[in-house]
Amino acid sequence: MNPLKRLHAEQDQAVWLDFVARGFVQKGGLKRLVEEDGLRGVTSNPAIFEKAIGHSDEYDDALKAAGDQRVIDLYEGLAIADIQAAADVLRPVYEASGGQDGFVSLEVSPYLALNTAETLDEARRLHKAVARDNLMVKVPATPAGIPAIRDLTADGININVTLLFAQGAYEDVANAYIDGLETFARSGGNIGRVASVASFFVSRIDAAVDTLLDDTIAAASDPDEAAALEGLKGKVAIANAKLAYQRYKRLFAGERWQALADKGAHPQRLLWASTGTKNKAYSDVLYVEELIGPNTVNTIPPATMDAFRDHGKVRASLEEGVDEAERVLAHLAKAGIDLDAVARQLVEEGVQLFVDAADKLLGAVAGKRQTFLGEGLDRQALALGSLDEPVKRAIETWRKEGLVRRLWQRDASVWSGADEAQWLGWLTIVDDEVTKAADYAAFSAEVKQEGFTDAVVLGMGGSSLGPEVLAETFGPQAGFPRLRILDSTDPDEVRAVEAAVNLERTLFIVASKSGSTLEPNVFRDYFLGRMRDVVGPDKAGRHFVAVTDPGSAMETAAKEDGFRRIFHGVKQIGGRYSVLSAFGLVPAAAMGLDVTAFLESARTMVRSCGSDVPPDLNPGVQLGLVLGKAATEQGRDKVTLIASPGIDTFGAWAEQLIAESTGKEGKGLIPIDNEPLAAPAAYGQDRVFVYLRLDAGADAGQDAAVTALEEAGHPVVRIALASKASLPQEFFRFEIATAVAGAVLGINPFDQPDVEASKIKTRELFSAAETDGALPAETPVAEDDGFALFTDAANADALRQAGAGSDPESWIKAQIGRVEAGDYVALLAYVTRNPEHLKPLQQARVALREARHVATCAEFGPRFLHSTGQAYKGGPDSGVFLQITSEAPDLAIPGRSLGFATVIAAQARGDFGVLSERGRRALRVHIKGDVAKGLDRLKTALS
To answer: What is the CATH number of the domain that holds 725?
Structure first.
């Protein structure tokens, strides 16, 4: 007779195979083992399932058909189908054994092993999803798992208790099972249909103890003692199992158990797990032959099953040598080896091994998903050079510590342990907004029906930069208004917007989370006043919609002014993370974009960056680790953004996200946007490059320049977009990446203390000016007919020592002379943002980079105050700042005593004041008269 059949027939020993995979079940292999080899059940093995996913055409077909879903949903779709198929094959065994054999075991996610409530929820969900009487749900015997085992048994669910190593822990598990049965019986449940096994791991104990014995033997001075200790090797695990079986006999006897048995209860059988031999010096069937006894189960790995089939011997071994087992463990304790401590360590390691296996399994699914999505998912490739190893180490740390899951669980300890959990609404905003897609579509149709020719977003920072990307990337849509952005208080820019539109056919979108931000409020005041002049007070409000957080001052004002609509943001989302919320979607709908398609594109990246995707396959996490480690490991904290024509405004949005999020506490990433590309020699060793390449519109010059950077050893991240339609994916990728980079830096990436400081100082200056009629007078440190220069006393002293004299050029030269390797130069221009003014600033920054090999920024105020302004003030003290102001004809603001010229001047002064307070190297150049001529003169001085 086949030894496996004899094992069952003669010793009432159930034999389960530690294997389940769809191909194996479907091809009849499981059925054959049941019929021919005495197989009595199967228990899921993630490692084998992972291999099956990697090599099964059937799985490939199923994943292709499933399409773009969460990785965990794709896996469960396969796994549950497999478990159900296996359960159906084993159903005859289950019925013939009276519900004692023929089980399929499916484990609860190991990520929940330390959480009782989540284990309970997951086990109940899996039990319901599989919907087979012969299912056992596998739960680990951790301190958190034991109460879950009790409560699940009380629900009448069959439980396979796993990760048992210690006799004391086994006793706790057995009592939890008995407690659960008693509760189930009291509730009227049929306890005769409840089955359970307690999986006692065997060979791992010998592997751990033998190592400790080797150390003890090496330290022993008595040869006889060393020999006696040598004799313990390979015996402890079996001795431990035999004594556990003695406890089993005592626990499932006596009056308490008999009362349950009289109601039909079945004992919780001991199951021998980890029965493959790890030490080749031992018999390859050791942990089968020595553990044969009534009412037990042995989960046999395939190789061990083949060996036992070939030469295994069947005998009633489990109750042999019980006294010897006692002596073995006593001798072990006398030698100073604590078996309970070994068991505790093995439980911890076992949980981690389960996690490792689950990570590989989900990684296999994630990899297949990415392959099958093809160009439906923006592709990311890394060329990191010497940064490669630090990033790999970081990826492994994030995987092992479960940091991706903890991020999605809103665990503030991923960052600084402050209030981060309150600012993570953006993680789920895409799914939330999908449910509102019909409302956005209705609004879009309403805008089209009204015949608006223009829609103007009035906002700052996150409220304006995202919509700007949409307007510039997708352009006007047929039949819909052209989307414009106003995010400057420069009087000429306000005039330019008004001149470009027909007010009677213009819709204004006033965007402000708090409703108290100065700029959106003065924009609203101005254009609402102008609209009242043009269409009358009764109709003016119909030309406005508000996007603001519930209960804000903006909402109150919008209601009072009769705005057409009010769309709510989410309080748990900061402005710079808000583009996939109403702050981005309302402008998208107004300009005629398909919001549903927009969100579906974003959702592909959300799923790709999900908690169930291991960090090595998680594009957002991967990018964040590159950026964070580039800064902390190699001082490469200048994130240089490159983008193909057609999507090049994305850099300005990413710039504000990265800078405002990470630049604080003297740390941070300094994003470099719109800096013309150069040969590798122009750059210092403080750069990491991120290249967003549009397949349909790539620039050959950019391609060549990026390739040269790679070849020169600069770290480069390439992101390939099949078309503009996939741009929404990049919003979420960069949000995740920025949050992860913040975690690497050890800061809170969701606050903006120095932006707030600038806002406060600006409000103070503007309020005082409204009272006094003007801003306070200033005294320049140098002046001529074209320039007046200003700075604080500390900077003035430093610049004079560096050679600054009476002429403005000497001060500018001295300021640039302060630039050192690893610094960056930021030109902060509070002038009208237009191509004529941008050109000399771009030429100046190129000249500075070529001469100094430093990163450069050219920013227009006041818009940068709500973005990079945070990093400039709170980030690393590596910035050399040249603020540029000018004079422009004022523009009155209805209801206010002062106009836009005073607003922008107050903002510039507030900005400079905080730079000074932070001890930054800052100089202000005020241009008198013609701005273009002044910028040309400044360019020459900087060159």
So the answer is: 3.40.50.10490
DSSP element (H, E) containing 855: strand 855-860
Q: What's the chain's Rg over C-alpha atoms?
A: 35
pLDDT in tens, 599-652: 999 999 999 999 999 999 999 999 999 999 999 999 999 999 999 999 999 999
Residue at 114 is within a domain: yes
* Gap between the Cα atoms of 37 and 478, Å rounded: 70
Pairing mode of beta strands 824-830, 454-458: unpaired
Compute how many other C-beta atoms are within 10 angstroms of the C-beta atom of residue 692: 24
Alpha carbons within 13 angstroms on the beta-carbon side of residue 722 total 11
CB 872 within 8 A of CB 663: yes
664: annotated active-site residue: no
Residue 857: left if φ>0, alpha if ψ -120 to 50, beta else—which one?
beta
Give the number of domains in the chain. Answer: 4
The pLDDT tens digits of the residues spanning 899-916 come to: 999 989 989 999 999 999
Q: Has residue 363 been placed in a domain?
A: no
pTM across the whole model: 0.93
Residues 494, 619 within the same domain: no
- Among the options 64, 128, 138, 839, which is catalytic? 138
Contact call for residues 755 and 869 (beta carbons, < 8 A): yes
Return the CATH number at 276: 3.20.20.70
Report yes or no on 383 lying in a domain: yes
Could you tell me the strand order of the sheet in which 782-783 lies? 782-783, 787-790, 921-927, 879-885, 824-830, 855-860
CA torsion through residues 863, 868, 873, 878, sign:
negative
Q: Based on the domain organization, do 409 and 434 belong to the same domain?
A: no
Q: Pick from 650, 645, 647, 651: which is nearest to 698 by CA?
A: 645
Q: For residue range 478-487, list pLDDT tens digits in order.
A: 999 999 999 9
Supply the angle between the helices 339-373 and 71-96 in degrees, to the nearest 10: 120
- Find tokens 């739960």 and name the residue: 139
Same domain as 222, residue 95: yes
Express as a percent the part of the chain with pLDDT over 90.
87
Domain stop point among 544, 569, 598 = 598
- In terms of domains, do 384 and 290 share one? no
- Judge if 486 and 575 occupy the same domain: yes
For 74-122, the three-class secondary structure string (H helix, E strand, C coil) is: HHHHHHHHHHHHHHHHHHHHHHHCCCCCCEEEEECCHHHCCCHHHHHHH
DSSP structure class, residue 27: T
Report yes or no on 368 lying in a domain: no
Domain boundary among 598, 631, 657: 598
Token pair of 936 as six digits: 């040309």
CA atoms within 13 A on the CB side of 492: 11
Distances (CA, A) of 733 to 248, 582, 608, 657, 823: 53, 19, 9, 12, 28
pLDDT at residue 684 in the model:
94
d(CA 324, CA 297): 23
Note whether 3 and 10 are within 8 A (CB): no
Q: How many CA atoms lie within 13 A of 438 on its CB side?
A: 1
From residue 790, alpha-carbon distances to 569, 629, 641, 800 in Å are 40, 38, 32, 13
Which domain, by its residues, includes 711? Answer: 374-423+603-745
Considering the domain architecture, whether residues 43 and 98 belong to the same structural domain is answered as yes
β-bridge partners, 482: 454
Three-state secondary-structure class, residue 159? strand
Q: What is the pLDDT of residues 549-574, one digit of tens each?
A: 999 999 999 999 999 999 999 999 99
Q: How many CA atoms lie within 13 A of 176 on its CB side?
A: 29
Q: Are residues 338 and 437 in the same domain?
A: no
Cβ-contact 667, 871 below 8 angstroms:
no
pLDDT over threshold 90, residue 456 = yes
Please check whether residue 164 is in contact with residue 198, taking contact to mean a CB–CB distance below 8 angstroms.
Answer: yes
Residue 763: pLDDT over 90: no
Tell me, yes or no, whether 863 and 879 share the same domain.
yes
**Residue whose pair of structure tokens reads 């398609």 in the numeric block:** 597
